[in-house]
């Protein structure tokens, strides 16, 4: 493909939320439901002694069709029809590999003898066509409907709910830094910079792995920082340094910004024993997020030797030890 075509393909992929996160989940912060301290069964508190309120999180969106509704579309209609339809409509590819696509763009630029300035002008033109960095992320209609359906269901069941606007604002705040980081990675490659550096993955993502001066706020569940460290310290020092474990905890539970930049030491022949730490974390949290699909990204979204999409596919086939 030509440089211009590859660039257009790149921006189509990230035009909507689908290309940024295939397993998007809506969420809002509860105003009444506090998290529970798993150690003593009491309401959890942060480092300042303030109550920790739960994040209410949906299943991945768009929701699957109920079997009866799927049959109404015709025999053999998949339950994830809305998801597949959205992928087709917005030309989002399952197998899109970010770095491979970026390098293909870079090679096409060199092959066609583009100057860096001219290449960036083309890139910015396509960016403006498919997504304005100052505007909100585009969410497919099926996802918007799933959000409304989820909030309405909760309200009808007497459960805490909120307005769609709050949920969409949360999703925008989560996805825009990720998409911006991908864009910056493309620009870095065009300028001839080394995009293999681990720290480039988190450019413009608010130092997503780093502890900060602000109080630790576990946005995933109810556990305190020291409790998380106590659980995962079984990996120290053989597979992770103390510093990397702390960075992981802040990245996955506090910042919740995907980075996939951590690497396990002594990984060969130890994959299952390493994964067991996350399996046990899921198994010890019956009152937290009972959905395995929410726990698997805690591992796959942050460590290079694991892949969230592959693990979720294995889960669907019953081939994972997240039982």
Write a structural description.
With 323 residues, the chain is mainly alpha-helical. The protein has two domains: 1-26 and 61-205, no CATH class; 207-323, no CATH class. The protein has 13 helices and two strands; from the N terminus they run ααββααααααααααα. The chain has helices at residues 3-13, 17-20, 67-72, 81-89, 98-111, 116-130, 141-156, 164-190, 225-232, 242-255, 271-283, 292-300, 308-316; strands at residues 27-34, 53-57. It has a two-stranded antiparallel sheet. The protein is globular. The termini are far apart. The model is unreliable at 197-208 (pLDDT under 50).
Strand count, sense and barrel status of the largest sheet are: 2 strands, antiparallel
Radius of gyration: 21 Å
What is the general shape?
globular
Topology pattern, helix = H, strand = E: HHEEHHHHHHHHHHH
Q: Could you estimate the helical fraction of the residues in percent?
A: 40-55%
N- to C-terminal separation?
A: 43 Å
Strands, total number: 2
Major sheet: order of its strands? Answer: 1-2
Poorly predicted regions: 197-208
- Percentage of residues in strands: under 5%
Q: What is the number of independent domains?
A: 2
Average predicted local confidence, pLDDT:
84
**What structural class do the secondary elements suggest?**
mainly alpha
Number of helices: 13
């Amino acid at each position: 493909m030509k440089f211009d075509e590859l660039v257009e393909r790149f921006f189509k992929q990230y035009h909507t939320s689908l290309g940024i996160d295939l397993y998007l989940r809506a969420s809002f912060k509860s105003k009444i439901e506090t998290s529970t301290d798993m150690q003593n069964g009491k309401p959890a508190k942060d480092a300042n002694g303030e109550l920790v309120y739960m994040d209410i999180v949906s299943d991945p969106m768009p929701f699957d069709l109920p079997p009866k509704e799927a049959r109404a579309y015709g025999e053999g209609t998949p339950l994830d029809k809305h998801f597949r339809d959205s992928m087709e409509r917005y030309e989002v590819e399952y197998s899109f590999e970010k770095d491979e696509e970026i390098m293909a763009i870079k090679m096409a630029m060199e092959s066609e003898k583009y100057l860096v300035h001219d290449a960036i002008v083309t890139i910015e033109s396509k960016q403006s066509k498919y997504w304005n960095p100052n505007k909100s992320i585009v969410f497919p209609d099926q996802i918007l409907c799933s959000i409304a359906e989820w909030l309405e269901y909760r309200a009808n069941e007497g459960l805490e709910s909120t307005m769609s606007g709050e949920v969409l604002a949360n999703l925008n705040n989560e996805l825009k830094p990720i998409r911006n980081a991908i864009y910056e990675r493309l620009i870095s490659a065009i300028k001839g910079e080394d995009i293999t550096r681990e720290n480039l993955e988190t450019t413009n993502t608010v130092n997503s792995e780093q502890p900060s001066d602000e109080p630790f706020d576990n946005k995933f569940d109810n556990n305190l920082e020291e409790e998380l460290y106590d659980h995962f310290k079984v990996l120290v020092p053989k597979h992770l340094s103390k510093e990397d474990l702390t960075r992981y905890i802040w990245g996955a539970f506090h910042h919740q910004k995907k980075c996939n930049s951590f690497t396990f030491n002594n990984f060969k022949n130890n994959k299952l024993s390493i994964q067991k730490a996350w399996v046990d974390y899921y198994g010890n949290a019956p009152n937290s997020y009972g959905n395995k699909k929410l726990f698997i990204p805690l591992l796959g979204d942050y460590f290079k030797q694991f892949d969230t999409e592959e693990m979720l596919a294995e889960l669907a086939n019953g081939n994972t030890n997240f039982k």
